[in-house]
Amino acid sequence: MYEEASNSTILMLLHTAVYPFLAALIVSIVAGKLLRASSYLGYLGGFIVGLGLIHSGLSFPPNQAIDYYSVTTLIGIASVLCLTLINSLTLRFSASFVLFGLSFYFLLNPVLKHSGLVISLSWAFSCAIVTLIYHLLIQEKVQETVKFKTNNERSISPLLLPIGLMITAGAAAPVISIGGSLLIGQLLGALGAALFGDVAVSYFIKATKSHSAIPAFLILGGLITQSHVLADIPLNVMLMLVASCFVTPLATALGNKLSNKQSTFIIIGQTIVSILISGLSLWLVWPESSLY
Fold first, then answer.
1. Mind telling me which residue stretches traverse the membrane in this protein (predicted)?
2. What are the tens digits of pLDDT across the range 173-194?
């Protein structure tokens, strides 16, 4: 019995962390180094691998809420293309808002449809607004750090946004796993591992970053929101976890051309805030009965 439990734990670790990380490494290298494409495709590829392994019933076209993360991935890519290719500011934000709303509508409607169309649209609208605010915060910073330094010094600054989301996902994973849904908690772990693989490759090959945090925020926001709608995580816990996503964008918005030392302090600050929120959230969601 203990051997079966050990094998199950190892398999869960492989599906949640190891395989998504390795997949993100491979896709990031191919996309960033060989194809000269943005390496955000790396963490999306890693997350899809984790999604397929963790959610064994994954289907396309989707027929349940979790299946729609494959659609969210495609919407994330489309939103990056819109933000990159559309010159008109009004048109760019309008298209982005529609795409953000569609992503959350697809993820939440399979459950919320029983409450009526108005409720589903209200959730989608609210989540799209939050995502748009995140984009507005990072817009100028993305333009400033779209290229790495040309000398031999590697800069952490362009990677702050995906690092911040990686830390948030990792800190939220145990909260969701213990408090509501092991499946969603595992997917948060897979996203964090995939982001780590993407960040590692991007740092060493000095890949360009262009709005690369938007797809990650869509997936992370979807997972945190689903934890409330699908898994009954308390609303105040959901809001705290979402708020922790904004620590790094707010910190980076305060400074221009951040040095590696300043970037390190921002990462430490994000880590401290995420751990504190995770600890408080665990205290709020911890079940009264034994976990075993």
1. 12-31, 40-60, 66-86, 93-112, 118-138, 159-178, 184-205, 212-231, 237-254, 266-286
2. 999 998 878 889 999 999 999 9
Nearest-angstrom CA–CA distance, 139 and 156 = 17
How far apart (Å, rounded) are the C-alpha atoms in residues 198 and 40? 7
Give the global pTM: 0.89
